[in-house]
Design goal:
By secondary structure, this protein is an alpha+beta fold. Helix content is 36%, strand content 21%. It has a six-stranded antiparallel β-sheet with strand order 3-2-1-4-5-6.
Amino acid sequence: MSHSQTHPHAPPRDKELIPRAMARAMLALVLTTLVLVTAARLTDRPLIATPPEGEVRLSREILLSGDMAGAATIRDLDGRVIADLTPQEGGFISGVWRVIQRERTKHRVALDGPVALVAYDTGRISIHDPSTGWSADLMGFGADNANAFARLLAK
């Protein structure tokens, strides 16, 4: 077989890899999404996929530290250890610590400030970093992960 001939199992070169109708449908989907989001923002449409707001039931400021292996240490503001977790126990908490460190680095603020854990009467728990304004509803990461922080509120 010479170089000018095609391989018998190769698809013909004139055949489209993505059908034209599919490419048009994908473009229509992207444009429709862009129009809907733009219209919602321009009309100040209220956000509907946000966690329910509730009254603060319990709040506690803590100091987090961790490592890349997943270990985490949680202290109160006086420096007393609340929990010293192994990589198997502290994986999620250490992951949140890494996110907070990244946010603090991005905002060029001190890396070792406290964060606030907040439990609401709706049963939801959130974490808030006052130095950057970053916060997360921990229920969005699953009940087991939220419970890791709920145990810190109880101690």
